[in-house]
Amino acid sequence: MMTDIKQSTLLGLALHELTSLVEESGQPQYRAQQLFEAIYRQRVESAEQISTLSQEFRLTLVQKGFSVGLPTVDGKFVSVDGTVRYLMAFADGQSVETVWMPEGDAGEAGDGSEAGNELEKQTSRNWDRATICVSSQVGCAVDCKFCLTGLLGVKRNLTAGEIVGQIVAVLNDQHVAPPRDRVNLVFMGMGEPFLNYDSFIKAVRLLVEGVGIPESRMTVSTAGIVPRIYDLGAEHVRPKLAISLNAPNDELRTRLMPINRKWSLEKLTAAARDFPLRNRERLTFEYVLLDEVNDSEENARELVELIRGVRAKVNLIALNPGPGIPFQTPAQDRVARFQDILIDSGVPTFGRRPRGRDIYAACGQLKRTLEMTA
Ligand code: SF4
């Protein structure tokens, strides 16, 4: 199949596009597989590093203006809890943030304390699994009122190569090799993935087939772009679905998430009920708790009714505060009471531990880049 290749970065090209590229360059077809392996599995940083290719073809690629196209790491902030917030810059100067969150017993020992530092020195690795939080757009247009990213507005969509590139750059920096190393991906960084659906889903396929991260270790979160929820359900290869809910009724949700005017809770919960879950899969509802706004006992009971019948779990996130955000973090006992009501009603409910708050890497905090680097 011939494909019109407009981009000059190799990252982001699927195997059939690489096949077109090698054919147009007069090279045998098997070169496409070699390119695919080098870009996604070996994660080379330049075309010159692709040692399986002939010197002549490598030169042709460079002469044609092709580069691998990895983002550059313009900033790196390390939290006391081991979380790393990366500032990734692309060729046009736009940038996004990508967050690395190591987890597990050893990871938690590396807490910046003397004991943690000592353990880090003794072991080559201070975590046993990790999660990368990936951005899908520069900024975000959805305007959730509790989110710092929302204050930015949207600048542009990322390409599939730029989405994959964030992950490859972090894996290279952390010296991690999936599938041997257990890495989870959450598409919950800057942007609404479902407003950049084609690039997002292409990136997912490249990450599964190329980089080697199983789809079962990926979760995409949406603010509720209902038609794309149906599209995701029809995909052959897809991440798990999380819906950022945050309110149990339309009046409150529209106030917190104006997108609710377009896709109401009735439409959203219908899409959730229709979503074709796989064996043992659960949908996730995320709920950011805002003090005295959406965290009352009545809100909890309303939420139970709203999601009744959906095979789902609820992730509760006490607001990560930030400048310009007109809400407060609820006290721990309010969070506990809300959680108890859900659990007592049979809804599996988890409290998400905030990661990297001190470096503005926690949920809804991805936009402090300029302030932190100034
Ligand atoms: S919470 Fe997500 S969808 Fe809402 S404004 Fe922030 S980044 Fe956009």
Describe the largest sheet.
10 strands, mixed
CATH topology name of the largest domain, in short, is: TIM Barrel
Give the tally of β-strands.
12
Q: Quick one: overall form?
A: elongated
Structure overview:
The chain is of the alpha/beta class. It has two domains: 15-63, DNA polymerase, domain 1 (Orthogonal Bundle); 72-373, Aldolase class I (TIM Barrel, Alpha-Beta Barrel), CATH 3.20.20.70. The protein has 13 helices and twelve strands. The protein has helices at residues 15-24, 30-41, 55-63, 105-109, 114-122, 160-174, 197-211, 226-233, 250-256, 265-274, 297-306, 332-344, 369-373; strands at 72-78, 84-89, 95-103, 129-133, 137-140, 153-157, 183-187, 218-222, 240-244, 283-289, 312-318, 349-351. Strands 1-2-3-4-7-8-9-10-11-12 form a ten-stranded mixed sheet. A two-stranded antiparallel ribbon has the order 5-6. Helix 1 (15-24) crosses helix 2, helix 2 (30-41) packs across helix 7 (197-211) and helix 8 (226-233) runs parallel beside helix 10 (265-274). The radius of gyration is 22 Å and the shape is elongated. The relative contact order is 0.11.
Question: What are the main properties of this structure?
Answer:
disordered N terminus; ten-stranded mixed sheet; TIM Barrel; two-stranded antiparallel ribbon; 2 domains; alpha/beta; binds iron/sulfur cluster; DNA polymerase, domain 1; 374 residues; 34% helix; 13 helices
Summarize, please:
The protein is α/β, with parallel strands linked by helices and 374 residues long. The protein has helices at residues 15-24, 30-41, 55-63, 105-109, 114-122, 160-174, 197-211, 226-233, 250-256, 265-274, 297-306, 332-344, 369-373; strands at residues 72-78, 84-89, 95-103, 129-133, 137-140, 153-157, 183-187, 218-222, 240-244, 283-289, 312-318, 349-351. The strands form two sheets. The protein has a ten-stranded mixed beta sheet. Strands 5-6 form a two-stranded antiparallel ribbon.
